[in-house]
């Protein structure tokens, strides 16, 4: 966990009942706190790979709001590199780092149970015979698209598929994009986000896919599976999407 000001850091594991077990990260170098948690320690990790384990971080150190220093161990921190996130923000005094009675003082209220949890994921995914098409960039036409906005406004996407990846993989959309000469689709805003009280969206996990466009999706593997199955259904069995769940490369539609 990277921090240039924290004096101590902990990784916090949560079981299915919400019970928290904390482990101090003992080492600090290169601007990051780090350590090793054995699979049989305390709450332990789920399965051999730990996939599905919920966790977060807490830091101890200086608190001086005027200087932008806000180390507060009462606040559970999301891993910005988490590949999956579970839960939503429940806005209230618990999620603020400062006390509502004294804005210059740290809040003693524990934010666990009011903020999302990071999830350990298994990066492995069996794509079967599917593989990227490796089209030359000189022959590539990129189309940047917002999943919800595009599928909500396309007249031939079935109502039940609008606002979803399956809607974007529908044959009417694929036909439209192919007619335009588009060879690859780049998706806008597919990561996890937190809507604030003013209706604005703040990133809640840039590396984790948001589940709002696929009700069964919570991890990168689920994201890939959703793309694979949806496009297979839309194209008569031929997979048409090739995805990078971190958003580092576009999805090929041909």
Task: Give a written overview of the molecule.
The chain contains 4 helices and 14 strands. The chain is an alpha+beta fold and 254 residues long. It has 2 domains: 8-119, Immunoglobulin-like; 137-252, no CATH class. It has a 5-stranded antiparallel β-sheet with strand order 2-1-5-9-8, with no helix packed on it. It has a 3-stranded mixed β-sheet with strand order 10-11-14. Strands 3-4 form a two-stranded antiparallel ribbon. Residues 229-254 have low confidence and may be disordered.
Task: Supply the key terms.
254 residues, alpha+beta, Immunoglobulin-like, five-stranded antiparallel sheet, three-stranded mixed sheet, disordered C terminus
Briefly say what this structure is.
The chain has helices spanning 147-153, 165-168, 171-180, 220-234; strands at 8-14, 20-24, 27-29, 32-34, 54-60, 63-64, 69-70, 84-86, 117-119, 142-146, 184-188, 191-195, 201-209, 251-252. The protein is an alpha+beta fold. The radius of gyration is 21 Å and the shape is elongated.
List strands and helices in order, with pairings.
Layout: E1 8-14, E2 20-24, E3 27-29, E4 32-34, E5 54-60, E6 63-64, E7 69-70, E8 84-86, E9 117-119, E10 142-146, H1 147-153, H2 165-168, H3 171-180, E11 184-188, E12 191-195, E13 201-209, H4 220-234, E14 251-252
